[in-house]
Amino acid sequence: MSTSSRREKPAKPANIDAAKRWLRDADLRATPARVAVLRFLAEAAAPASHGEIADELADGGWDRATLYRNLIDLTRAGLVRRSDMGDHVWRFELIGPDAAEHEHPHFVCSECGIIECLPQAEIALRKARGTPRAVRRQKVQVQLRGRCDICL
Ligand SMILES: [Zn+2]
Ligand SMILES: [Zn+2]
Q: What is the pTM of this model?
């Protein structure tokens, strides 16, 4: 598998109208909660958990269950990717309508747990005989673990 990014970062909806367009193009109704979740993820520097998103959007008055449902809707529609970074917590990040262009590995600090997106990193996996189909089809997530700059 080689992950290459033609652009360094996934496209972001530039404003509320663009966010609504993304939703409608994905056959989702552009509800205020969905727009808020999309806009939050567009500005997030790293994948965020449901709890973090709910805390950040608490001012909007949405309950946690509504936000969770919307995260799942966005994930099913392919706009958001859901990953388990190894601590059994789902984290969500925006990948946008052209998701395939934005496969990227993540760095997880084994000490403090901080997560970083590595859109510039390229990982090549040799496709030997017996390589699982998921790897050949690039339906896998690459995760690098080590100590972050602060924990070194
Ligand atoms: Zn660390
Ligand atoms: Zn990422």
A: 0.80
